[in-house]
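Hello again, I could really use a second opinion on something today. I've been staring at a protein lately and its backbone has me curious. Can you walk me through what the tokens say about the fold? Take your time with it, there's no hurry, and the full record follows here:
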Amino acid sequence: MPPLYPVYHPEFYTATILEWKHLLKPDKYKDTVIETLRFLVTGERMRLFGFVIMSNHLHLIWQPLGQYLPKEIQHSFMTHTGQQIKLDLEKNHPAVLSRFKVNAKDRQYQFWERNSLGIELYTHAVFIQKLDYVHYNPVKAGRCQLPEEYHYSSARFYYTGVDEFGILSHYNG
């Protein structure tokens, strides 16, 4: 019997903070991203194979599940993280919040760039190339010597097999 819903390939996804500002530098905002990913994973909207959260952008390798479309997952992710960060900025850092004020008809503040990048990963070789890219991002940025040393990444999961965040699925090609 064929599946009830379309089956999507894993996707390499990049989202950038507006104008490459370093909004995600504080760990509490990286934790907001993790909590949003946890919600999407535990709600069986997607499977997460890899990630890295940097101070001004993030990379994910995820796969939509069930009836969820990639654009719906992206929208949920961007909307929820933006709302949570906005609430914290309103309460604790109003001067920082003002740096994200935009002149748009549909919003007062914007945290994520509008044109995030999503690329379907059709082959094992491309998947592994993107996973390596994700894991070596903090090394290239000078944040650590080895990928598994950077906390907000799935590299340690692939190195040790331990999922500290409780959100990852091991890719087995």
